[in-house]
Structures are given as structure tokens and as C-alpha cells.
Amino acid sequence: MTPIHVEVAIIGSGTAGMGAYRSARAHTNSIVLIEGGDYGTTCARVGCMPSKLLIAAADAAQQARLGAPFGVRIGTLSIDGAAVMARVRRERDRFVGFVLEAVDAMPPGERLTASVSFVDANTLVSEQGQLIHARRIVIASGSIPVLPKLLQGLGERLLDNESLFELPSLPQRVAVFGCGPLGIELGQALSRLGVTVKMFGIGGGLAGIHDPEIRDYAKQVFNEEFYLDLAAEVESVRVAAAGVEVRYRLGDGSWQSEAFDYVLAATGRAPNVARLALEKTGLALDKRGVPLFDRTTLQCGNSPIFIAGDASNEIPLLHEAADQGRIAGDNAGRYPARQAGLRRTPLAIVFTEPQVAALGFNLAQLEQQFAGRYAVGVVSFEDQGRSRVMLRNKGLLKVYGERGSDRFLGAEMFGPAAEHLAHLLAWAAQQRMTVGEMLDMPFYHPVIEEGVRTALRDLNQQLHSAAPVIEHSLDCGPGA
Predict the structure, then answer these.
(1) Cβ neighbours around 360 below 10 Å, total
(2) Which of 311, 412, 451, 320 has its CA nearest to residue 12?
(3) How far apart are CA 143 and CA 313, in angstroms?
(4) Which of 139, 144, 264, 265 has the maximum number of C-beta atoms within 10 A of its C-beta?
């Protein structure tokens, strides 16, 4: 086969890979984008978009259920599972189509469909034996689902986020393994769509929440809707006549065996680098086989190899993958010159209800970098005005600030409209605003954002031992 010679080769055509391609192509037309699987990003095909479509259907069902306290009553709720899944796939395919249009618009000579591995730091080889010689290489190979041994061997009874959305209709009973962001999003959505859901976690984690008080609060709220055990003791999971039988220990210490139609594995994803033969590059690798890299340039060691997106195992989120792809592609294109790229304030959102969000420094990072030099402000949304009006008054928000400088450092929350509050706070953190400067910003009435003001006032008091914070979020009173 005829070898390929290019300036830049990019492995993977997901969000990071496409971003790297566009940035590198600003410097050179000698480029090839290599994809060993289906085109279409993880987000569009099996991640962000189909999951949010399922969540949107679940939100519609939940709103229909919750009218009675407002004096609004409807008849018997009916959920057409086939129609729900059909819309998920239809809209999912539309989003994937946009990505495919972008791929099709690329010159055919600049894309290659093949699975590749490294021969050395400047050479790749396809499974068919074709060599690709590249002066610089960007690894943007994404991630793959992780399946624990307990769940192996379930055959067609096992679902993950890549197969769930292909079901022709909603099942009746599902056991969800994994209580991280993806698991809790899908578990709650299925439950609100009428599926009997039980969730089994490992190690006590929930939705990526760092603060123990917020995590315990969220666990209590979710358990009001469906069974949730964050540190489940599961003896066996096996295929049975009725589907899948799960044997697990209840809170009272007794054992129970229960049948489900399917098991949904949401047990995490790992960098998709195992088949790349990275050991042949001479790069230093971490314990998961990922090259060590500079997070400001995305360069791996002193090599002409760069890494971006989920393959880096740093922050597996779409906006981070897009940023990393842009930085890695730009530096691969301009190599040996390199420049630090913009790394934005960390921001993560989980689309449950209430929502989960975190931004800036988390508790572990605060203890590591600001030990004894930070303060915490808190607000409960249970009595927050607008939240109570809408009967969405569950949640906690914690905000962090640095003693001495008064700089706002970050926040974590479980509550209403967290996706919007988190953006406002992330912008403030990236602008390195002080708590005082944030309190000088306008707050309309009545809005959920007034809860942010209450938390910031509490934080300001902790930083300065100032006047007592106003009680009960008196948004309508003289202290507003």
C-alpha cells in the first residue's frame, strides 16, 4: 500500500479531533484526520444530546404529575415509550447529521478511515498495513465504556449509553450500575418515564459531588424518587428466565433477589488508548497508559505528539475537549513553535432535577492549595423566594472565597437552575472577581439568582466577620 506523508496526522474525529483539524489546518494543508469507527462525536451520537433528549421527555412527564399543588389537575398520565425513544433517535440523528456534514465538507484526501497504532513517534500503521508518516501527531482517540467483571456475560440484557438509545421502546424494569453523572441522569430520567429503577453505586460517590453535606442532601432527595444505594453490596448479577436477576443486600442487612429487564452499565469511561501501542513512542505514560502532557500546550513530553479530549483523561467534558482540540491542533500546526492556550475555569453540570454543578476549585483542591486560607458561604433553597413559588425549593449552594484577597474561588451546588447559576459564577471566577465585586452586581427580584446573593453575603461574613447575614433570603424586605 502507498504510504501517506503529511505534516500533521490527527487520530480521532470527535469533538477534540475536529477542533484539532480546524486549528492545525490554519497552519498547513498537509494534514490527515484518521477515524477507526463511526463518524459523529460521542456527544452527538451517544452522549450529551441523546441523554438530554431522554431527560427532556422525563421532565415533561414530571411536570404533568406535579400540577396538583398548584391546583392544576390532569387525568391519568400515559407515556408512550415507543414514541419517546423514536423522538430521541430522530433528534439524535439530526445532531449527528450536522457533524457528518462537516466531515463530508473536508477534502477527501484529508481524511482516512482506518484503525491505527504507533510504529514510532512519527509513524502510524493501519490494520491493513498502510504507513502514515507525520511530522506531528495529535491523539484525540476519545474514550470507551468501562465494564466491571460483575456485569460481564449478560449479553443482550446489558445496556450502556451506546445501546440504551437503540431500544425500540422503554423497558419496565432497569437496574442501573454506577451513580456518576451519566448514571444518575439516565436513572432519574427512566424513573420519571415510568420505568422501575434501582441504582447501585460503588464507594459512595454521587454525580461527581465533592462536598459531603451536598452529597448526603442529594442522596436523600433522589431516594425519594427511586432506590439508590451509593455503596451497594451486590453478590451476583446473572441472566435469568425473566431477564436479569440481581442479588443485593438491603439496608437492614437482609439479602434480596430481584428481576430486571436490563442492566444499564454507567460505570465510567476510560481513555481509548490501549490499541495505539504508545509504548513505541518513547513517551512517559501514567498508570492508565496515557502520555504525560503539559496542560497549557497539550504537548506530550518534548515530543512532536499532542493529546486532546477524553483521551487525555483530564476533564471528559465536551467544552473541555473542544478547547483542548483547538490548543493541540494549533500547536501541532505551528510546531516547533508552541504557545499556551486558554484553559477556562473548570465547569461541570449534571442535568438531574435538582441539578448538580461545580466550578472553579473543589474542596479537595481548596484543602491542597488554600488550606487555612479559604472560607465557605452557604444557602439553602428550601426557603428561597422564587424557588418556593415554583415548588423547586430543594437544594444547597456553597461558595468559596480566599481570605485576604477576597477572591471568589469556586462553588458547588445541588439545586434549581444550577446550570444557569453555575455559568454566572464560572464567569466571575474566570474574571478573578472578589466577593465584594460580585455583591455589587445587580440582582433582580424575584429570581433564583437571589439565592446566590444570600450565599455570597454569608461568604462575605465568613471572610470579614462583618454584619450578620440577612436571614431567610428576605428578597421582598428591606434587606434586599
Answers:
(1) 22
(2) 311
(3) 8
(4) 139
Within 8 A by CB and 6+ apart from 8, the residues are 24, 28, 30, 31, 32, 134, 135, 136, 137, 138, 329, 332, 333
Is 68 inside any structural domain? yes
The domain tally of the chain equals 3
Is residue 375 situated within a structural domain? Answer: yes
What Cα–Cα distance (Å) separates residue 386 from each residue in 11, 194, 398, 469? Answer: 48, 29, 19, 19
Q: What is the CATH number of the domain that holds 167?
A: 3.50.50.60
Sign of CA dihedral 26, 29, 30, 31: positive
312, 334, 356: which is the final residue of a domain?
334
* pLDDT surpassing 60 at residue 468: no
How big is the chain, counted in residues?
Answer: 480
pLDDT in tens, 180-213: 999 999 999 999 999 999 999 988 999 999 999 9
Residues 160, 234 within the same domain: yes
